Amino acid sequence: MAGQIVFLFQDIIRCLFRYRIRPALLIRQIDFIGGKSVPVVVITGGFIGAVFAAQTEFQFKDLGLSSGVGPVVAIAMCRELGPVLCALMIAGRVGSAMAAELATMKITEQIDALRALAVYPTEYLIVPRFLAMLISMPVLVGVAILCGVGAGYYVAVDILNVPGVYYWNNMIKYTHDKDVWIGLVKGFFFGIIILLVGCNKGLTAAQGAEGVGLATTESVVDSFIIVLIANFFFTFLLNTLL
Q1: Residue 56 CB: number of other CB atoms within 10 A?
Q2: Which element (helix H / strand E) includes 91?
Q3: pTM over 0.70
Q4: CA distances from 216 to 57, 59, 107, 187, 242 (A)
Q5: What is the pLDDT of residues 162-198, one digit of tens each?
């Protein structure tokens, strides 16, 4: 599978320079990948931030470190929880849909029909999704981070009675631009991983309805595994570079 993904990525880059961009298809994919994923990302980021803030306060309270809840929640959301959980949600929602759609087109010979009409499948089907994912994924990660930090503040200050001034001031003091950039860059690369895995599974699906279901399932599972493994290496690499 690794070789197939590399060749697919090379084909996408080649198409970016060889063929024209189709604005209508790009806008449609941005709406599907980005716009329609916002509710899922908002709910995920918000409740993860709220739960993490609550659990952090429960543990820090006994140590007299309640004022440290803010920076812990903010840094965790920016560096890890925001990008990773957002990527997992997008892999489940968007990656699986891409795999299912492309697999269905493959087994019904619609991709062969595009070739017969002198339309290169990668340029028509994959490139708009690729560009839309590059645009949408960092924005979605930013939304997840913002919702997580906001929900964490609400739970800690308004429900658990953590002093709001200390919470806010410490969060601003110890959360840096670097933390936000790490999350956004991770989201950018996670988006590429999700797209390549989903599209590759769809384009290489076996014939029949079973092939569509298998491609969809494998897309989600493989995306989850690769994102989690990649996150480990990105954590060390980005912390060194940024």
Answers
A1: 23
A2: none
A3: yes
A4: 40, 40, 14, 22, 35
A5: 888 888 898 998 989 999 999 999 999 999 999 999 9
